[in-house]
Amino acid sequence: MQQFTIIKDIVIILLVSIPIIFVFNKLKIPSIVGFLAAGMIIGPHGFQLISEITEIEVMAEVGVILLLFVIGLEVSIKQLMRMKKFLIIAGGLQLIGTIAFSSIIFYSFGINITQSIFLAMLVSLSSTAIVLKLLSDKRELEAPHGRIALGVLIFQDLAIVPMFIVLPILGSGSNMPVSEIVLQLFFAFGVVGVVLLASNYLMPRILETLVKMKMREAFTVGILLILLGTAYLTHAVGLSFALGAFIAGLILSESDYSHQIVAEILPLKDAFNSIFFVSIGLLLNIGFVFQFPYLLIGITAGIIALKAIVVIAIVKFMKYPLRTAVLAGLGLAQIGEFSFVLAQAGMNFQLIPDDFYNAFLASSIFTMILTPFFFKFAPVIANRFGEIEPIKKTVEDEHKLTKHVIIVGFGLNGKNLARVLKEAGIQYIVVEMNPDTFQEQKSKGERIIYGDITREEILHQTKIEDANIIVFAISDPASARRGLIQAKIMKPDIYAIVRTRFLSEIDELMSMGADEVIPEEFETSLQIFSKVLERYHIPLNVIMRQVALLRGESYTLMRAETADINSFIHLNEILAAGLTDTFYIEGDNIHINKTLSDLNLRAKTEATIIAIVRGKETLTNPSGNEVIKVGDTLVITGNHQSVDRAFQLLNGKK
Prior knowledge:
Layout: H1 5-26, H2 31-42, H3 54-74, H4 77-82, H5 84-108, H6 113-124, H7 128-137, H8 144-171, H9 178-212, H10 216-236, H11 241-252, H12 258-283, H13 286-291, H14 293-317, H15 322-331, H16 337-347, H17 354-388, E1 405-408, H18 412-424, E2 428-432, H19 435-443, E3 448-450, H20 456-461, E4 469-472, H21 477-490, E5 495-500, H22 506-511, E6 516-519, H23 520-535, H24 540-552, H25 556-559, H26 571-576, E7 579-584, H27 596-599, H28 601-605, E8 608-614, E9 617-620, E10 633-638, H29 640-650
Parallel strand pairs: 1-2, 1-4, 2-3, 4-5, 5-6
Antiparallel strand pairs: 7-10, 8-9, 8-10
Helix pairs in contact: 1-2, 1-12, 2-12, 3-11, 3-12, 5-6, 5-8, 5-14, 6-8, 6-16, 7-8, 8-9, 8-15, 8-16, 9-10, 9-11, 10-11, 14-15, 14-17, 15-17, 23-24
């Protein structure tokens, strides 16, 4: 029965995974951390529930293939172009800087140059899965440090490709002739180019064939064939499975069916990824940890410190505040999941001895386990560092600000508000933390200062003591909260309006002193129900009354689990009653030059045309001989169903 051991092992892993996912989600900790811990507990160095991990490693390899495939699918060229500053500058400098400093440190400890470079490559990568999960849970993906972290992580994911390519070269030793190195690089990149060209030609045609079959099973099986086939092709020519999977995802990302592909593959990816992370935990030698505890503590602390310092220096170089730099640095201070994949590949080329591998594995897992705690305490640490950063004083404005509006954040909402205030002749000042936006708007003559709104000195520069209103239009919840508290301390009677994403945040912000909270989630729902009611021809004044009612109650009606339905107008009574509506005749309407008799609207729909507005003239009770012309507005009366039918009839296009 030995051949069925893998089934038992997978059953154990899945049995452990379900409670881990539940418990860790409740604790707001990424389940990946739980999978790592579970592997340590049930593995050959723990309770030995799983003692043979060879087969599990094969399953884990499938998880990595699926992970890289999905990353390739989600890489949008347009998205990369929008993030080019964070991607190229922050991501590129982080990778180069971390590899350079780490290589020097490893080499100084007597490790040969090729192994030093390889170990530095492992250290340079951070965990995309953990960081994005934590940023998403804290709703900080759109915050400055969130966007920086995302740019760095995407760059690292893309850098996996050349890292896999150079592994054979590093494994050949430092004595390898330069000409042979160049030849191997040329061959590796040539193979990738050929695979890309072949895939770009074949995959769309295969995909079209699969779609035309109109069979979901065929589509799913075909996607797996493309994925695993490309992965095997790259492996067959001496490169990695993961590289082929990424290429397949990258090609298919340009397809119109990429979203459906993600939907089909995602459940498989999640299941195999749990096996992958558990398998990493299985590999950890607990005995090694107890044998060298101080060494591992030192390595773990060194990795965290080095990675954090490199990121902080880069973010400060990009002219962001120290508080943002510290948040980004602590967020990216762990070792990533692809480091494990790269490490296992490197062992095939003798780039990492067993003792080094055990030390790397243990310290890497510890950095991942510590990451959620870094995220929890990072705001406190960042605020402390932010307070010691000197504030650059701005030049006094020649026009004294008084009874003005403070706009925090100059994104779309901030710009629209500034435009309206300018037209209304109301004074305002903008606080912006993005250095590029600051320089751009300052050059246009905008009244704007650069700084972190959480700082008392920055609020002083906004002349908050003379301001009437402060509007937080930023997508950084933590900064908005801290800035709101600071503003209310400095001027308790200032009217504070805060933009937020979710209804659940309203009560907390109101308790902090916000006078008005605008939740995007709720405003979207208002727009949706307004559009739905418009389609049913509910009069505009009735729709506006519903909106005013909900806003007037500070959204409590929609937030309550059992809203008082009597607070609403009985819309069913309005729907049952008659109404009057208008229909504009556009130039491509098929009814142009027809008479009302030809149209025969009443007989076909039971609605009646009671007037025609033509320019400045209104024709009441038009006769059947009246001709419909371009630009006419038909005034129609009837019940809701008849008016709907009339609109459907009149909507004919040429």
